[in-house]
Specification:
- By secondary structure, the chain is an alpha+beta fold.
- Helices cover 49% and strands 6% of the residues.
- Strand 21 and strand 22 form a beta hairpin.
- Helix 11 packs parallel to helix 19 and helix 21 runs parallel beside helix 24.
- The chain is flat and about 135 Å long.
Length: 1900
């Protein structure tokens, strides 16, 4: 676009090449004006011809170009100015002609004036940031550009910002897509009315010129295209042609931006058929045109779906006699001749032989749809332009041009029709494309603009058969990747399914087509047409059946599978997108009674398709073993339409259900999936690898469950409600393979299951039954109830954030269904069931999000374990929900023990599904329940509490849903003939519960204990192996005892199945006995079984009561509650039974049984009266006793374990407190144990590696684990209280001139300009930037142990987050990050009292001693291990920071440099500790770091090294401080040599550190105090000098005067007035005060100086020094710091340091001068110091003054202040260009310390292989960088060579982060989080608190 834009602006033009005809080389503008005039005449034929000729010449000048470009010799052919020039020239001509002689810019402006700008229509491409407001949107695809969004009013709306994936266009002003209230200010006014109509002559030229221009473009496209050879991808060539065409297309794009007037001209040109015919027919004499026309025809050839030869369609069977011809014709109509694929794709047709076996059908291609398949014909420029756009695979520029035209209504319709006409061709190109992803995005970019508009979609559906085309194209697309289905009958299967391994499915290539289809189905008018068109429905069901049974899993039984295929992703995505989403789209239109017909249609064709499918896979009645497919879209279509029919359309369910036989078939596969889920969770599929678990999880996962498991369960519920209950129940147990387990015998054989899987499969079967019987999602719950149940289930598993809840709750997956996440009902339900927990911080630094947690009443009444089990992806979530439930009951005091899942009342069933409850009242189920209760009571193996829980749950469900009509009498009277072949008399659970069963005949292995017993006289036949009753006359019984017929569950099921089949197929309604083939005999009948007869004598009720005794561990524990309180029977809802364990459940069931029938009540009372020992056989009492003992032993073991755990926990806690305590300094226990006795004892250290304790010695030194890091935090202190803000406009840039680091830098360079270098380096401290900070966790280790530890780390190949080669490690005890070891100096840890005793020497004596001690050279101690370590740690300290932060001297490598660096390290650590204490010492107490301070050890190391450099005694500042120099003039003799720094310019704190570190260690306390006293006199004098400079002339004179009066008083040396007057008079001798220029007035503070304010100034000046000194004293001598108020800090610290004389009275106001203790007469020494200043200011008064005023009061460092709303940052920075490359960076970031804008990972800003963020972190933070990533709202920390994602300080309204701005909700600053970030920065604890570090390899 650049060229076109430049041209448009009328910039300098390239040299113009000669035009072919010399006559035309006139001035272009004149020619244009002449032509315009000619054309305006009424008879304009001549003008038109002239213009045509001109255009022919001008535009054909370009023609050789394209040809040349083809031939790669473009440069040669261009003639005059190279290839670009001719094109430029042609464009210039066009512009001139359009403007008709005027200027092009004026022309543009003129046209724009006629733009009725009602629509915005801004087109954007991928990655553009746009907005979507759901409150204003009508179509869910609605989107707004940022400008329109911010101009409109969307306060309080549900909107979000998003990054466009495929591109889009702004809908502002389009009332079809959004409500007018949301339009922005520019597009609100319907302006078309008051826009004047366009003058004819303005656009006249355009109408003539543009057709030629567009034709020229098309010729280019034709000539540039070569049919790609089969193997060579032709993208390169295509891109080359496109690059050449860039300026032309950009020119067109600019035209579209001129507004409506120009767009309508373009529309005319593009759609005019006559123009197209005239220009492109290729009939002219022009050879060039002919050639291009031929190329065009070749390109067109391959555009149809078929080749001329008649290929056959497979996948359809011949119409059977029964089907209506209509359907087939309709089908034929829709499908046309779908040939197999182009020959190029022939190789993947390997399945075709298999397919050949299906009967092929030749479809009559009717005329209507031939058009879909045919070769394209083009009638206008628009059509051919689109054709080439597709051929060139949708170049972005072309797409943008075509979309920019859309605001023109006429164009929109024409373009949409053209798009539909090319739809099949688009699909074809897409399939062949190499860049299918990009292409898909561009297709959707266009189609979403066209199909979201209902009016338009309806129009093309009616006029262009849009639906037929889409369905056909989809079908055609899928047919290319079909394979034979292996489900069921592998050999003879005729079913074909898609192959999920194909690229088409794996890469989601079908996505654009499906997406369009879903989009148009969201329009009611279109969906209705679809649902009414039988032919389309048939075709669609045929399409869906391609997915039925895809991705079949076969269970591996022997080997583990070698290669785990990951095709299941593709399969699940395909079913969801291609089948389920269109289904939800259709369902959303079937909401009312009037739409019943639609449902009937779908159901009918669905059933037909299912019947075809059963036939195709040869399915009879048994599913093939060990295989499962999770994909049954046909079943699910059927189920969902049934559900809709009953719920919304009031259809009679039976009218749409098939016969029993079909229901039996329908039930098999969904049931197979449920059983397979249980098998997968029981690890029976473990040899298939992890992917099978992945499938089981995806099947129930929130995005899939309501299109997968929910319809399956619903379908099973429908089948269960209509089929025979005994048949259904026995099918379930057979599918779950647990039939053999259901026997009364204690041992059994299972032929189909291993013993270790039995228990979990039984649990699975029972759980499935419970879900089946209690789930009401489709059986009568309203939408709000469903939403509430889903929400409660998710919240019970875990507390959830708002966004994860939105994600986890299965919404209707069709995005256009109108159920919007975040809709009103969602929020209201959420506030009803959950409480919001605001985000909190945990001490460890892990940050919480805002969470929702269930309210107490939800736990109490709504916790539904069934729903939880259904919705859990991971089994651990069920446990988590139970644990939370238990915790709630304990906390609220409702139940102390381990509760069972509560029983929840269900919503009433919809009447259509009443039959479901018959399952609970069938004998088969009762026998199973009875058997299981008996087995649990007898402690048989493989039964669990879970089984019992589910058994009781089923019994309770049965009692809740019993038929009440039945009276007790009737039940008891039933005669023997009614129940001669069954255990129980009837099928009602209530009466069956009390029925006693005496004997049961079982088949058992010969080894079983039951065999030994004699058979009693009267037997009843078996458990589930033979369902016979004990109520027959005894004679019969005895005859039968030998030959009891084996009547098993399986046989029973077969019989039922046979009956149904015979009933439906034979004329007579007779019942045929099951054939007794081997296949049907009981699975348990293996030869070694023998028959035994058990004496039972129990009923369900008696078993329950005994179970109660067993669970409670007491005899006779159950006492019927109604005997005490008859009320219970009247008001049954008793809260005490709501929560509890098994005992409670049994009591609740017995109570319900008693309530339901008087007989039961009586029998319960009887059983309780008998008080029998719990179980009849003798040997079992022993076992019972054993279990009781066991229980007791267990209890004791449990208690013991609890005790141990508690002990362990308390130990652990105390360890945590000593080792890890990051936050609570109060309760610290110092690790180094200092002895309390007065005598000197050596410090003892524990080595955390070898565990030995002992002192540190010369040979085996101990060291502290330390982390050395460079820090620039100190340098960020500012003297301004006003906080710095992050710049969010161009004006707010930050300049760091007022930071501490900058000020110190300036000072040092000033000194170095005028004074001797070596002296300058002693006058200041460095380390404000890049200073080395040393911190420790307080643990110690032997240095040799540490070396071996490092060795072991080096050999350990585990990926650590740190680099061992750089010396990094984690403390072996507390795992804190460290990188060095600081040796502990032998000797006592805290200096002993000996050194601290105040001596009575005079200050003069001490001064001499100090000087002597400093004078002694410090020889390095002999080569011991200790000294080596000291050296190596010093090296570490130096290497911690960069060279530029160490070397400040002018002569590189001078020893002064090292000297300066070493004492500055001490300074940095003291200053940082001061900052950690909040900048003052008012809080007192031990150091915040407590045991973790390592300053003492650090001092020893530094002192040892500093004593190697002796300061020449001539230059030792100590002399200047304590002695008067005789000749004051000696200095001036030496002019050429730079002078020393005057003592008043020295930084006093630096002097203190130098003096102390130059002394031999350990230091004596009185020497320390002496040094402090001497330095304080200097500091005080500096304060007075600074004060004198600050005030004005009059004040100075006044003070000079008052001070002089008091000069002779006794305490003159301690009076600040006297001293101040002295200073002023001394300095007046020099030129310091003379520079009173005008600019000085600015510096003079306007306040009048009162004695109080002067005193405050002096104290503030001295305080920083006192604080540092007190800290130093605290570390060296172990004295505690006293705490105090802020105002008395000065006096407290000075007395603590021994500056205040002890006899000082505190009554009158405190005066700082009273701390002075002059070593030599004050007046003399001050005069001497002032003389140095005067001699300097002689020459440099300005600088002299600047150096005197030192800013000593630095505020605490802070990060930049951030704005409240994140959007302000985002809008400014995400479009901001990078200062280096002036592009907008892909990942912009901003430094939160200094506000610099940087590119993350940007290659443009890379310097010497360092990317910009890493570089900036080194320059700004000496290796620590804190960056806010603009596009992600996340903060990233760079620390040295590692980085970590810290988290976000911006949270949404629900208190959660939005990383990468995926949700795009408004974000607000979380001040607490920002404070935590700042705290971690200041305290240098990023390394310890954040755990996930990784190396950045300088690439950030």
């Amino acid at each position: 676009m650049a060229a076109a834009a430049a041209a448009a602006v009328g910039g300098p033009q390239p040299p113009q090449p000669e035009l072919p005809a010399p006559g035309l080389a006139l001035d272009k503008a004149a020619t244009a004006a002449h032509l315009k005039a000619a054309l305006s005449r009424p008879d304009n034929r001549a003008g038109a011809e002239e213009l045509q000729a001109l255009l022919e010449r001008v535009l054909s000048a370009e023609r050789p170009l394209a040809a040349a470009a083809d031939g790669e010799e473009a440069a040669a052919a261009g003639g005059g100015g190279g290839p670009g020039a001719a094109e430029e020239e042609a464009l210039e001509w066009c512009k001139c002609l359009l403007a008709g002689g005027g200027g092009y810019d004026e022309f543009c402006a003129a046209v724009r004036a006629y733009d009725p700008a009602a629509l915005c229509g801004l087109v954007w491409t991928a990655n553009f940031v746009a907005y979507r407001c759901r409150t204003c949107g009508i179509s869910p695809c609605m989107s707004l550009c940022a400008e329109c969004f911010h101009q409109g009013d969307h306060t309080g709306h549900d909107f979000n910002m998003f990054r466009s994936q495929a591109g889009g266009a702004c809908d502002c002003g389009d009332s079809n897509v959004m409500r007018e209230s949301g339009f922005c200010k520019r597009h609100q006014i319907k302006s078309s009315s008051n826009i004047p109509c366009v003058p004819k002559d303005l656009l006249m030229m355009s109408e003539f010129v543009l057709p030629r221009f567009i034709f020229c473009l098309i010729q280019y496209l034709r000539e540039g295209y070569n049919e790609p050879a089969a193997d060579v991808p032709s993208e390169k060539d295509l891109n080359k042609v496109l690059q050449l065409l860039e300026p032309q297309i950009s020119f067109l794009e600019d035209l579209t931006k001129m507004g409506g007037a120009m767009r309508s001209v373009l529309t005319q040109v593009l759609t005019n058929q006559q123009n197209y015919k005239d220009l492109t027919s290729g009939l002219g004499e022009n050879a060039c045109a002919k050639k291009s026309h031929e190329k065009y025809l070749i390109a067109l050839k391959s555009s149809g779906l078929t080749y001329p030869e008649d290929k056959l369609v497979y996948g359809l069977q011949e119409p059977s006699a029964g089907t209506s011809t209509l359907a087939v014709q309709g089908f034929a109509g829709a499908t046309g001749t779908l040939g197999q694929l182009d020959s190029s794709d022939e190789e993947d047709q390997d399945g075709s032989q298999g397919l050949g076996k299906r009967k092929r059908v030749k479809l009559s291609s009717s005329t209507k749809d031939q058009s879909i398949m045919d070769v394209l014909k083009h009638k206008s420029f628009l059509e051919e332009l689109l054709f080439w756009t597709i051929k060139y695979e949708f170049p972005q520029k072309m797409v943008t041009f075509l979309l920019n035209m859309l605001p023109d209504q006429e164009y929109k319709v024409a373009f949409t029709k053209t798009f539909v006409q090319h739809y099949a061709f688009i699909m074809k190109t897409l399939k062949k494309s190499h860049e299918s992803d990009t292409m898909s995005n561009r297709i959707v970019h266009i189609s979403v603009q066209l199909f979201s508009n209902e009016e338009l979609a309806r129009q093309v559906t009616e006029e262009c058969q849009l639906l037929d085309i889409m369905v056909t194209v989809l079908l055609y697309m899928m047919e290319s990747c079909l394979i034979k289905s292996e489900l069921q009958d592998e050999e003879n299967s005729l079913h074909v399914v898609v192959n999920c391994g194909e690229a088409l499915l794996k890469n989601n290539t079908y996505w654009p087509l499906v997406s369009d289809f879903i989009n148009i189905l969201s329009h009611q008018s279109v969906a209705k047409r679809f649902l009414e068109d039988h032919g389309l429905l048939v075709t669609w069901m045929n399409f869906v059946s391609f997915f039925q049974g895809m991705n079949l899993n076969k269970r591996e039984l022997n080997e583990h599978v070698e290669f785990e295929s990951q095709t299941y992703y593709a399969a699940f995505a395909a079913e969801l997108e291609a089948c389920a989403q269109p289904m939800w789209g259709l369902l959303s239109h079937c909401k009312v009674r009037e739409t019943q017909e639609y449902t009937r249609n779908v159901v009918r064709y669905c059933l037909e398709a299912l019947q075809d499918w059963f036939d195709a896979i040869n399915f009879v009645d048994e599913p093939a073993p060990n295989q499962v497919t999770f994909h049954l879209p046909l079943h699910r279509y059927y189920a969902m339409f049934l559900s809709k029919a009953v719920k919304c359309q009031e259809l009679d369910l039976d009218s749409v259900l098939p016969d029993q036989e079909m229901l039996m078939k329908l039930m098999i596969h969904p049931l197979q999936i449920q059983a397979s889920l249980a098998e997968i969770h029981s690890n029976m599929w473990v040899r298939n690898g992890l992917q099978i678990k992945g499938q089981a999880m995806t099947y129930v996962q929130s995005h899939f469950c309501n299109s997968m498991i929910d319809p399956d369960i619903y379908l099973l519920q429908v089948c269960a409600s209509r089929l025979d209950p005994d048949y259904f129940i026995s099918s379930v147990f057979e599918r779950f393979k647990v039939v053999d387990l259901l026997t009364m015998a204690s041992q059994h054989q299972n032929t189909v299951l291993d013993a270790e899987h039995e228990r979990s499969m039984l649990e699975g079967a029972l759980t499935f039954l419970v879900i089946l019987l209690s789930l009401r999602l489709h059986l009568g719950m309203s939408d709000d109830e469903i939403l509430r149940a889903e929400m409660v289930a998710q919240l019970c598993m875990n507390d959830r954030t708002h966004s994860s809840l939105l994600d986890l709750i299965p919404e209707n997956p069709n995005p256009k269904s109108g159920i919007i996440p975040g809709s009103y009902s969602f929020e209201s339900v959420l506030s009803a069931v959950a409480d919001f927990k605001a985000p909190v911080f945990e001490p460890g630094g892990s940050m919480q999000q805002g969470m929702y947690t269930p309210k107490a009443e939800v736990w109490d009444q709504e916790f539904d374990p069934v729903m939880v089990i259904l919705r859990t992806v991971y089994r651990r979530d069920v446990q988590s929900a139970m644990d939370r439930y238990t915790a709630f009951l304990k906390q609220s005091g409702k139940f102390p023990g381990n509760p069972w899942p509560p029983y929840k009342k269900r919503t009433p069933l919809h009447p259509s599904y009443k039959g479901l409850m018959r399952l609970l009242h069938c004998k088969t189920l009762h026998i199973v329940l009875f058997t299981l209760l008996y087995k649990i009571l007898m402690d048989h193996q493989n039964l669990s509490e879970h089984v019992l829980c589910m058994v009781l749950y089923l019994i309770e469900l049965g009692l809740e849903n019993s038929a009440e009509e039945e009276s007790d009498e009737e039940a008891s009277v039933c005669g023997p003939e009614r129940c001669h072949d069954s255990w129980f008399p009837g099928s009602n659970l209530v009466s069956n519960m009390r029925h006693f069963i005496n004997y049961v005949r079982v088949r058992v292995p010969e080894t079983a204990p039951e065999v030994k017993r004699d058979s009693p006289a009267s037997t009843s036949s078996d458990s589930l192996s033979s369902l016979h009753s004990s109520r027959r006359p005894k004679v019969l019984q005895r005859e039968n005892s030998g030959t009891a017929q084996v009547f098993s569950l399986v046989a029973e099921r077969r019989k039922k199945f046979q009956e149904i089949i015979n009933r439906s197929s034979s004329e007579a309604n007779q019942v045929v006995r099951p054939k007794t083939s081997n296949k049907w005999s009981a699975p348990g009948s293996a030869p070694q079984l023998t028959t035994a007869i058990l004496e039972i004598k129990e009923s369900i009720l008696s078993l329950l009561i005994k179970l109660h005794h067993k669970l409670s561990g007491k005899q006779n524990s159950y006492y019927p509650p109604w005997l005490d309180d008859i009320e219970i029977l009247i008001q049954p809802e008793i809260p005490k039974y709501n929560h509890g364990d098994g005992i409670t459940a049994v009591e609740r069931i017995l109570l319900k049984a008693a309530l339901q029938s008087r007989m039961n009540k009586r029998i319960i009372e009887e059983i309780c009266r008998k008080v029998t020992p719990p179980v009849p056989p003798k040997k079992i009492t022993a076992a019972e006793k054993k279990t009781l003992d066991k229980e007791e032993r267990r209890q004791k073991a449990r208690e013991r374990q609890q005790k141990l755990l508690a002990e362990f926990a308390s130990r652990q806690k105390s360890f945590m407190e000593t080792a890890m305590d990051v936050d609570s300094p109060e309760n610290d226990i110092p690790m180094e144990i200092a002895t309390a006795e007065p005598q000197v004892s050596e410090a003892v250290y524990d080595c955390v590696i070898c565990g030995q304790s002992g002192p540190s010695s010369e040979d085996r030194p101990t060291g502290l684990v330390v982390l050395l890091q460079a820090s620039s935090v100190l340098g960020q202190c500012r003297d301004n209280i006003e906080p710095k803000k992050l710049p969010i406009t161009e004006e707010e840039q930050i300049y760091p001139w007022d930071t501490c680091a900058a000020v110190h830098d300036v000072r040092l360079s000033l000194l170095q300009r005028y004074f001797k270098d070596s002296s300058c380096l002693l006058a200041v401290s460095i380390g404000w930037e890049g200073g080395v900070y040393v911190q420790t966790c307080g643990h110690t280790l032997h240095i040799d142990c540490h070396k071996s530890y490092m060795e072991s780390l080096r050999n350990d190949q585990v990926l650590q987050g740190f680099s061992v080669d750089k010396g990094e490690f984690t403390c072996p005890l507390c795992r804190q990050f460290a990188n060095s070891v600081l040796p502990c100096y032998p000797g006592s840890n805290v200096e002993s009292n000996l050194w601290q005793r105040p001596s009575n020497k005079s200050i003069q004596d001490l001064i001499k001693e100090v000087e002597e001690l400093q004078g002694r050279p410090g020889a390095f101690p002999s080569e011991t291990n200790l000294s080596k370590e000291m050296e190596s740690v010093m090296k570490d300290i130096k290497n911690t920071t960069q060279k530029k932060y160490r070397d400040y001297s002018k002569t590189p490598g001078s020893p002064d440099n090292d000297f300066l660096f070493m004492y500055s390290v001490a300074r940095t650590n003291l200053e940082l500790e001061l900052i950690h204490r909040g900048g003052n010492l008012c809080s007192g107490g031990a150091s915040t770091a407590g045991k973790r301070s390592c300053l003492n050890q650090l001092f020893h190391v530094l002192a040892l090294h500093m004593r190697l450099y002796s300061i020449d005694s001539e230059y030792n500042p100590w002399r200047k401080l304590t002695q008067l120099v005789e000749e004051m003039n000696s200095q001036q003799g030496n002019e050429e040599q730079q002078p020393e720094v005057p003592i008043l310019y020295h930084d006093v704190t630096s002097l203190l550190l130098i003096q102390i570190l130059m002394m031999p260690q350990p230091l004596r306390k009185d020497h320390f105090t002496c040094i402090v006293k001497v330095l304080f006199t200097l500091l005080y004098t500096q304060a007075l000098v600074a004060l004198s400079v600050k005030c004005n002339e009059e004040d100075r004179l006044a003070w000079k005067h008052t001070g002089a009066l008091k000069k002779n008083a006794c305490d003159a040396e301690k009076s600040y007035e006297v001293l101040l007057s002295l200073v002023i008079s001394e300095l007046s001798k020099g030129k310091l005060y003379h520079e009173e220029g005008t600019q000085e007035c600015a510096m003079v503070s306007p306040i009048a100086w009162s004695p109080e304010s002067m005193e405050k100034y002096l104290q503030d000046f001295c305080l920083p020094f006192l604080r540092i000194t007190s800290l130093l004293q605290h570390h060296l001598f172990g004295e505690d710091l006293p705490s105090c108020q802020e105002e008395e800090e000065f006096s407290v610290l000075s007395s603590c340091l021994g500056l205040l004389p002890t006899f000082y009275q505190t009554e009158h106001p405190f005066i700082s001068a009273s701390c002075l203790d002059w070593p030599v007469p004050a007046f003399d020494i001050i005069s001497q110091w002032c003389f140095e200043i005067n001699s300097f200011t002689e020459r440099h008064a300005e600088q002299g003054k600047a150096l005197l005023i030192q800013e000593s009061r630095w505020k605490l460092p802070h990060l930049l202040q951030l704005p409240e709303n994140y959007n302000t940052i985002f809008q400014y920075y995400h479009r901001k260009t990078c200062s280096v490359c002036t592009k907008v960076p892909k990942d912009p970031a901003v430094c939160l310390v200094c506000g610099t804008f940087v590119c993350l990972k940007g290659l443009c800003c890379k310097q010497q292989s360092y990317c910009e963020c890493v570089l900036h972190s080194q320059n700004c933070g000496a290796g620590t960088g804190i960056f806010l990533l603009i596009n992600a709202s996340v903060i990233i920390i760079i620390r040295g060579h590692r980085f970590c994602l810290w988290g976000s300080v911006y949270l949404d309204a629900h208190g959660e982060e939005d990383r990468d701005l995926r949700r795009g909700k408004p974000l607000y600053i979380c001040k607490e989080r920002y404070k935590v970030l700042e705290q971690q920065w200041i305290s240098h604890t990023f390394d310890h608190i954040n755990k996930r570090w990784g190396p950045h390899y300088n690439g950030l």
